[in-house]
Amino acid sequence: MAASCGDIQVKEIDKRASGQAFEVILGTPAPDAKGEFPLSPPKKKDLSLEEIQRKLEAAEERRKSHEAEVLKHLAEKREHEKEVQRKAMEENNNFSKIAEEKLNQKMEANKENKEALQAAMSEKFKEKDKKLEEACVSMMLLEDWAYTWNAIWHLNR
Fold it and tell me: Which residues form a coiled coil (predicted)?
């Protein structure tokens, strides 16, 4: 398919599901047509001292504005760094406090377990001492009885 409009021709090259391709052919320009683009650049007008001064002041203002923006950005960055550092210190302190509390709880639990074990051992030893004492008393009574019986036996003979 080829279509033309004045000095422009459009020719279809390829048609696919993904899109179409066209070739556009431009006609030759008329010799009497004036080009849209001048051959020489426009002449610069002479700038007055006031215009130059105004442009310099505007440039200085832009420079100061840019410098202020950069300083503001740096201040915000420093503030953010301080905030991050403060949060890190706060988290570190919280971690230290939690770790210390856990350690104290473990130490207290160990102390209580040790005291309970010592109390149990002490009770066990007291019971053994009591049984030993009872055994000693029984032994003494048995010895007394044996001595008495032996004495009686010798007398009755």
Answer: 49-124
